[in-house]
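Suppose a colleague, Dr. K., hands you the sequence of a protein chain of 192 amino acids and asks what its three-dimensional shape might be. Before reaching for any lab equipment, you can write down a predicted structure in token form. Begin with the sequence itself:
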Amino acid sequence: MVKGNNLRLFFAIELEPDIKSKLLAVQDRLNDIEGKPVNGANFHITLSFLGKVAEKNLELILDGLFSSTQNKALVAPFEVTLKEVIYWSKPNIVAASIEDKKGHLGTLKKHIENALTDIGHFQFDRKSFKPHVTLFRHVEEPPVKSASLDIPVEISRFSLLESVQNRNGVQYDAIETWPLKHSSIKQQLLGR
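The predicted structure, expressed as tokens, is then:
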């Protein structure tokens, strides 16, 4: 980070190395795609994109989110499933779709956005949330081959990431990571 600059920030779920390896194998199988493969180190599930943020506001974000995660019930750790390879023509991507039957990712996204709205600095786009892991960018045509995945992903934390452009492309650096809170015994008994 360079002092005084704007930072490109977003909240995301960082994937474990074994999940990234499985997704790299999926990329290799989809060798008919004409597009730019995403670097495996960059595989993630985006929750909320903040865009360009003045570096002076970073502490405010971190403090505001930390106090929010301390004072409000957060989502407990949960599991989602990477289900199938999908193509979206509007952003021109091929991605792994995510099955999240209980909507935990959406709940976590809402919690983060409410906490940041409470500190008064952000307004978020309210279009529908479609969690996914981008595998290829700049894809003009759907892949000829399709793939069912069925890869379970354990989610126990979320991160604030910075998108950094360098001569090798883009890399995502974690600025801070927060664990998801485990439910109390009472919440577990009540199924929350």
